[in-house]
Input
Amino acid sequence: MTAKKSFDAPTLEWSKGTVKLIEQTLLPEQEKVVTIRTPKEMWDAIKRLAVRGAPAIGCAAAYGVVLGIHKSKAKTPAALLKEAVKTADYLATSRPTAVNLFWALDRMKSVATLEAKTMDVPTLKQRILDEAHAILEEDKAMCHAIGRNGAKLVTKRNKPFGILTHCNAGGLATSEYGTALAVMYEAHSQKKNIHVYSDETRPLCQGSRLTTWELMRAGVPVTLICDNMAAQVMREGRIDIVVTGADRIAANGDSANKIGTYGVAILAKFHGIPFYIAAPSSTFDLSLKDGSQIPIEERHPEEIKNGFGKWTAPRKAKIYNPAFDVTPAGLIAGIITERGIIEKPNTAKVKKHLA
Ligand code: MRU
Output
């Protein structure tokens, strides 16, 4: 893996047989683009959060499959298909919670399986690459549509309309523009007077390192708060709505997102503030009846004790580090998708919306 400086780089892109992606672990201090050349490098990039956020992980994994086959010496389409499936199954072991990863890999496998029946090896290689491009382009379109749908919730007025968000569901977490942050970008571009409060999002600080950085660069008014300040900020009347992203949404609307989101939703309910999830249809997992079945990733204890190179707890302290939690549908005022808004989600409404 090599690194070079970049300024306005896309979150990730296919470039001459490699994938270039923004190295998110270095933000906001360093803006670097790294070059990913092999499925193993892509697995590592996903695991260590160099690329992160549910839709971005899906796009990255799709290109990871291409990295596994594009230089293949397979003589038959069946042999190439076998390599593609093996690579996809390997990449699926990188992170467990965001369903977009499995959704994208399943889609890559399905296309390869279908087309291997009729295509020769070079045509099949190109078709697999084209599918990864399609996943990326569709994600861009979905994010922009989510922004347009969500911005309707933001009232135009003189006093700033306060929006609280948690973690990073912005351009860095998607192909571009974001999901939750798309709502803010769109409202801002419509000249609505918004003010975003960005939760820091311990332990890995996606809110301070990524969301605050992204919004500041885009000129969207933003104030950073520590996670434990959200209740006070709500009580002071600064927040009109909460909008976060999601990593997996069960059939009944229960939504997994970055650890701490559930607590924010409870605080919002207490203060009478509507809590919204913004996510594309690729984030729904209709095979799961409810959120209790969503696998929750547990990450390394060092992220809490020694997150950024400084010991902030005794070295031998016992640690529990779940990376996500599930917000029950009952706490969610609506789920904003590229198709519209599912108000007060439940199983019937989710199924109808996605049908
Ligand atoms: O661990 P991360 O940084 O990948 O977690 C990301 C989140 O929880 C995001 O809020 C979610 O993926 C939505 S991204 C549009």
